[in-house]
């Protein structure tokens, strides 16, 4: 099993363990704030399962029905996670509203807070693993899962601090208010994931930094050509699709033009991880005298 799949499977296991710990903390106290924290862990488990499925499917090789590969499935997984986050936020807000009206006493214990805090430490450590390996493997699903865990850790720390304050002051109103704040934080996290995923599904261009790097590489490695124009980029999971037109002297042979293309593709592949480059060669009368000038 490849590293990405092992990490994705590990997320499911970690998510279940953390969910169990946070539910124990909620069960010991009856706190709405701790309930909201536990419910977010349900989303974490669902997110981890979605990431596992996405990583597995995205690793499948291209076939006749999907000649560009299956990389975009990671964007769908991130959208699913975003929807789950929104549903969890609405459920937490509903519970907080009922608790605000009911004003039920809460049985806070040091043991419950310690259990919840231990679960948050596990989440923090695993979030670091996910983001580190996700960025290294250019896996949106793993990075999204890790970023969501970071949000969960921040929410949990806020909940723990607030719950301790309720315990010290006796202000029961703080408990549902904390739950509502957690719901808003989760909602924002969900929106960010959905926004990023929609950008990938809509074939947004690569970052300006990556585009500038590609232009510099073409200019430096395209010796023998005249110019390049109509550069287009399209990230899809771990892969970045790149295509452009390369203008060469009209008298240049096909073999020589092909050698230049090979040199440019190799140079881009060394600097842009997962690059898939397509070059359309044109004679010099097609030059636009704009775009990328070959040095």
Automatic annotation (TrEMBL):
Residues 207-284 form the Cation efflux protein cytoplasmic domain. GO terms for biological process: intracellular zinc ion homeostasis. InterPro entries: Cation_efflux, Cation_efflux_CTD, Cation_efflux_CTD_sf, Cation_efflux_TM, Cation_efflux_TMD_sf, CDF_Transporter. One of its GO terms (cellular component) is plasma membrane. Keywords: Cell membrane, Membrane, Transmembrane, Transmembrane helix, Transport. This is Protein p34. Gene3D superfamilies: Cation efflux protein transmembrane domain, Cation efflux protein, cytoplasmic domain. The keyword Disulfide bond does not apply. The chain crosses the membrane at residues 7-26, 38-59, 75-93, 113-131, 152-171. It is a multi-pass membrane protein. It comes from Stappia sediminis.
